[in-house]
Design brief:
With 124 residues, the protein is mainly beta. It contains two helices and nine strands, in the order βββαββββαββ. The chain has helices spanning 48-57, 96-99; strands at residues 7-13, 22-24, 32-39, 61-67, 76-79, 82-85, 94-95, 106-112, 116-122.
Length: 124
Amino acid sequence: MTDPRAATEYRIPAVQLRPGDLVNTSPGEDDWQQVLGVYTRAGDAKSDEVRGLVKALAERYVAVQLTDIAPVDSGVYFSDGLAMMYGVDDGADQDVTEVISQEDGVRTYLYTKFELVTVRSAAS
């Protein structure tokens, strides 16, 4: 019997990415981010900045916007009503809200139109 929560990793050409896909930006290190937008033509872009970038790429590259959510690599505990994160490398403990990523963080990556990227699919 297979676990319905299982996910499969596979590689696809960057030009086939779609919003909602999960991409591993650092295979081997597990930096999974969700695709927010994929731009191969300037007319697809939603902002002037991305439109200008895509135009300069002359369809040789794919501009991909991803979430920018950093992992929290330490345990969390509660102290005086605050969620605290244990310090790393002998550093001081920190309030979790000082460490977590902002909700609107976006990364923009450039992939060649031939490049394969690692994506994850949830089992259906």
